[in-house]
Amino acid sequence: MTTKLWRLKMFAAASVAALLAACATAPTPEDVEALAWGSATSQDRPEAYETYLNVHGQSLHAEAARQRIAELMVLEREAWGRARQVNTEAAYEDYLRQFGWGANAQEADQRRAVLAAPRLAAQERADWAEAARVDRIEAYEGFLNAWPNGANSEEARSRLDYLWNTDEGAWVRAQRLDSVGGYADFLRAYPRSPFAADARRRLDEYRRQDDWAWDSARRRDEVREYERYIHDFPAGYHRDDAERRVYQLRADDRNAWDRAVRRDTIDGYDYYLATQRDGEFRDRAQRRIRTLREAQANPPPPPPPVTQPPAPPPPPPPRPRPRDQDQPPPAPPPPVVSPPAPPPVTQPPTPRPRPRDQDQPPPAPPPPVVSPPPPVPPPPPPADQQTDQRGDADSDRERGDPN
Questions:
Q1: Residue 338, CA distances (Å) to 334, 335, 341 in order
Q2: Residue 1 pLDDT more than 50?
Q3: How far apart are CA 244 and CA 214, in angstroms?
Q4: Whole-model pTM?
Q5: Is 245 helix (H, G, I), strand (E, B) or coil?
């Protein structure tokens, strides 16, 4: 029986290989049937063979599929009989591993659980005793992962909730976070905890590793080294300096590439490659160098000399149409006559008096200009007033009054 099963599997493997070899073309019905037969034999279960027979009931392998179904049913009944006869947990587990599809699989699983119950209960009690002895968060978590529905699971959860609210819970959270901030927060909250010494040692070790990684990145001074430092130490002491240096290096790399592109020479790109060991544009610079060297090795042919095209021939005179042959030729255009010169400018003649004005007398002359008469002098003052004025003048001279 085992030999027959081996032959079936070998034949199925050959069928699958033939089908894969024919995948270059559209599959034929024979190819589809071979693929289905290979799938059934690889599963080697009654359900797989029945699915094959539902589609390919008249195929070449139909009879072999029916025989294999009968053989599997016989094997399943024999294995179930042996498991019941032995009646141990291992026997039922072996039956379920080989014939999990069998009609007796559910009963076998139930019997296995009944037989395993005493062993599992003893194991659960031993694991609970160990977790209670250690009395740590990791111990209770391991117990609940192994026995989520065990007899002591509720007590384990209650104890675990209490421990999470103590310094041990804070220490476990800091360990799982494993960062400078986590350990620093723990030390600020529990400076006298039994775990404080471990937290300080972790901080010192972290700072030592951080400084070593930062010094290594600075010595190489490349973008990828700074990025590796940021990746390995996301909360490192030198993260800000690393990010600033990455920005500066990328700006310098871009400026160097722009200068090389403006020059567009082999020396310019070589200088870029020599100065930017970690440059973003190194591949493009190398491709451009190869292009320029190929252009130097194979220069393009010179352009042909520029020749003036020949002058086009004059157009032929128009041939007269048949209906125009009897008509006289058109008259020549009239000569161009220049316009006459403008007449000379002459003074207009003095207007003659009209006949009606000859009998009228000439206009009267303007009146002479008469000057105004001279002003009349004022009359002389009387004699007695003149005598008084002379006496006043003499008196003034005696007093020395200039007026």
A1: 12, 10, 9
A2: no
A3: 13
A4: 0.47
A5: helix
In angstroms, rounded to a whole number, what is the distance separating the alpha carbons of residues 27 and 6?
A: 27
Q: Check the CA dihedral 300-304-306-308 and report its sign.
A: negative
Neighbours of 60 (CB within 10 A): 12
pLDDT in tens, 244-299: 999 999 999 999 999 999 999 999 999 999 988 888 899 999 999 999 999 888 88
Residues 350, 354: Cα–Cα separation, whole Å:
12
Per the rule left: phi > 0, alpha: psi between -120 and 50, beta: everything else, 229 is: alpha
Asked if 150 contacts 128 with a C-beta cutoff of 8 angstroms, the reply is yes
Task: Specify the higher pLDDT residue, 397 or 77.
Answer: 77
As a whole number, mean pLDDT of residues 301-312 equals 80
**What pLDDT does residue 141 have?**
95
Which secondary structure element, helix H or strand E, spans residue 212, and what is its range? helix 196-220
Which DSSP string do the residues of 177-200 spell out, in sequence order?
Answer: H-SHHHHHHHHHH-TTSTTHHHHH
Of 122, 153, 171, 198, residue with least CA distance to 142: 153
Residue pair 152/124 in contact (Cβ under 8 Å)? The answer is: yes
Q: What is the DSSP letter of 234?
A: T
Residue count (the chain): 403
The gap between the terminal CA atoms of the chain, to the nearest Å, is 176
State how far the Cα of 182 lies from the Cα of 174, in Å rounded to an integer: 5
